[in-house]
What does this fold into?
Amino acid sequence: MSSFGSVLRSLVASVRRQTATLTGTDARSAPVERKQRAADNHGRPAEFATVEVDPASVGRVRMTYVPSTDGDPDPGEIVWTWVPYEERDGRGKDRPVLIVAEEPAGTRLAVQLTSKPHDDSRDFVSIGIGPWDQQGRPSWVNVGRVFRVHPLGMRREASAIDKSSYVGVAAALKDRYRWH
It folds into this structure.
């Protein structure tokens, strides 16, 4: 079996070299680039990608607490989606976000969760402990970064936060961005 694997690897390498020669690309970098693009949104089409948005540019935002564990991301629910890193270099990772509003186009606005304590920052609002963190750690949301989540870009629903925590997050977002 190991000789078959060697032959197969050799054949694949040969095809990559030939493809690189025909396309003018580096055969070693092409697979990495494809892998990076696929990892950026877990292989989902780019139009479903979670993206960071300028909160001032999203227009009128109506925040209403309406969680419903129906498979769709609803305000008040924590969902998992690919989130771009703050460096905005095309990389990111799968993270929990709190859905805070639904936009007319069907996309959702969200803020990122963290379990790293942030008691002294106006960018972070405590939402307590909940089933979204299997280790039972307290969580905060970062109101300093707002994301647009497409329902087809999320990986899964985790759970809903309680209404009083949602109201606290909504108040912080309204105060910071002058949302209604």
